[in-house]
Amino acid sequence: MPGPIYTVKNQQWQVPAFQYIEFFKKRSNICVCTPVINEGQRIQNLLERMRSLNLMDNIDVLIADGGSTDGSLEDSYLQKMRVRTLLTKMGPGKLSAQMRMAMAYAIEEGYTGFVFIDGNNKDDPEAIPRFISKLEEGYDFVQGSRHMPGGRGINTPPSRHYGVKYLHSPLISLAARRRFTDTTNGFRAYSARLLLDPRVQPFRDIFWSYEILFYLAIRASRLGFLVTEIPTTRAYPANEKTPTKISPVRGSFNLLKILFRSVFIGYDPQGNKVKGKTI
What we know:
- The protein is of the alpha/beta class.
- The longest helix has 19 residues, at about 160-175.
- The chain is globular.
- Helices cover about 35% and strands about 20% of the residues.
- The chain contains eight helices and twelve strands.
């Protein structure tokens, strides 16, 4: 059943229109946000894994739905899984728009940090408490990595493995001026302090698909926020179609365009300059 339309209090933010249903009261200062669209059994498997780890007992979980039509997010099921809020995007945009929606709602609800984990059940939610610990220690951006010591990439398609390791991560690291090892991994965390800094301004319509992922990694590092990586496990299903929203040709080409734009032009709201230098 559709919920009411959410009214964003900060009128300066560009956030897609969305509906929301709150199943439970706010219980934690840090929340877990899960972007999803038509993931079917995969999102349910992820929620059940999270519940089996007793994560729902102490951590609020928000679902940032891009407009699923597969019946995987029924109200009664989400209540059973102890999901706190379902957000359903009505306005335009893809992943970055879903993330802006979740961030805006979470900030206005008073959360101080946000852990993002994809809804396709590739990431091991066992790492969520470690992300939360890093936020509580004062870190502003925490990147999950399958390529650092202790991390694991299971059944990763070769094109993705080599593309991330030898193209994407080196370029993002170059722009960020620090080494990242797994820059396409959506398992990551942000502080409200980072997102609310006027030099960052993530609530802009220019962030449509994957732009915000690359931008925030670069921006947080270049502005001197506390940044770190932690080891995580990311497993692709064996002998099954790769769960992804990126088409092999057009999607990969668009991803490369976003990567090069992020690295060589940037999305800086203040004229692409940080301390007098272009970003």
